[in-house]
Design brief:
Length: 76
């Protein structure tokens, strides 16, 4: 299980972040509350993550704190 992701923030929108770590770009779905706390692109970032696997999809969610990730997983 991927629980954190640390690297360089490549791009960010209010609902999506791309983090590059060791040459691999990871696309993460993020809440607006996390987007507001992210640094500018090109800066280091660490996100707490939650991977969701479904029959027809795989998604990686990123959060500014572990508590936000727990709340999201409890709500799902």
């Amino acid at each position: 299980m991927i629980v954190t992701l640390e690297g360089t923030l490549v791009e960010c929108t209010p609902l999506l972040a791309v983090v590059e770590a060791n040459g691999i770009g990871y696309e993460l779905n993020i809440p607006v509350t996390t987007a507001e706390k992210l640094p500018a692109p090109g800066r280091p970032v660490k996100l707490h993550t939650l991977a969701v696997y479904r029959e027809d999809s795989q998604s990686l969610y990123g959060f500014a704190s572990r508590e936000e990730a727990w709340k999201f997983s409890d709500a799902g």
